[in-house]
Amino acid sequence: MQREASSQSSTHHSAAQQEEATPSDKDGKAPAPEPVEDDNPNSLFSTSYETRPSKPLQKMPSRTSSPRMTNGATADPKFKLPPGLQDLIASFEAVKARKHDPTSPHSLRLLAASAATLPVAQDAERPKRYKPQTPYKTPAHYPQEPLGLLEEPSFFGKVDTDTLFYIFYYRQGTYQQYLAAQRLKQLSWRFHKQYQTWFQRHEEPKVINEEFEQGTYRFFDYESTWMNRRKTEFKFAYKFLEDDLST
C-alpha cells in the first residue's frame, strides 16, 4: 500500500511540472512565435507583418476605340495617296474590278506556252559532257565515265603546260579542251587563229599599234618538235587573236 501511494504522488508531481513548463493561452493553443528581427537591411525576408496599401489598377484603353487627334478631332482611318499618285486610283480600281476569264485567247496562249516548257526528270540530272570518241563495250563494274576531277577548273591549275597543250590538241571539242585553253590564257599565252598555235611574249614588243604588235615571241610547236621555240621579229595581227575565252 505504501508503494502504491508513493507511485501515485510521484505521477501527480510530474504532471504538475509539465503544466508549469508548457503554459497555454485561454483557448488552449500555444502562442505564435515572435518574429526575429534581422539587423541586415538587405535581408530577403521582412520582419514586419504590416501590409502596404496596393495602388489602384489603371483602366486599359479599349482597342476598339477610335483614334483621337491631339486637337480632339477623329483621325481618318483611310490612307490618302499623295497628290501626284491620285490618278492611279482609277486604273487600280478598274483592274481590280476586271474579271479573269480562263477561257480567253490570251489565257490559253499563256497556258500553251507554259505547257511547252514543262520541266522533265532529266532536268534535275547533271549534264553529261563526256562523249567517248571510240566507244567500246565494257563490263558494268568498269568505270563508264572519266573522273569528275577532270572537269574541275582547279585541277587544271595544278598541271604543267605540256599537259595543257596535250589536252588542248588531243581532246578537241570537249569541256577539258576549254578548261585547258582558259588556263593557258591565264598563263599569258595567246592563241593565233591563223596558225592554230599558242604564242607568248618573250619580251616587250618593239612595235605596238591598233592593228598588230611586233617583237620576239615564244610559240609551242605542236606539229614537229612538241616544245617551245623562239621567233624574232614576229608580227602578231590582232585580227587573228582568239579573244573569246574568259579568264
UniProtKB/TrEMBL annotation:
Biased composition (Polar residues): 41-51, 61-73
Pfam families named among the record's database cross-references: NOT2_3_5_C
Swiss-Prot/TrEMBL keywords: Transcription, Transcription regulation
Gene Ontology terms: cellular component: CCR4-NOT core complex
KW Transcription (keyword) present: yes
InterPro entries: CCR4-NOT_su2/3/5_C_sf, Not2/3/5, NOT2/3/5_C
Biased composition (Low complexity): 1-18
Domain NOT2/NOT3/NOT5 C-terminal: 115-241
Region (Disordered), start-end ranges: 1-82, 122-142
Biological process according to GO: nuclear-transcribed mRNA poly(A) tail shortening; regulation of DNA-templated transcription
Family: Belongs to the CNOT2/3/5 family.
Record-given protein name: NOT2/NOT3/NOT5 C-terminal domain-containing protein
Provenance organism: Arthrobotrys flagrans (Nematode-trapping fungus)
Higher taxonomy: Eukaryota, Fungi, Dikarya, Ascomycota, Pezizomycotina
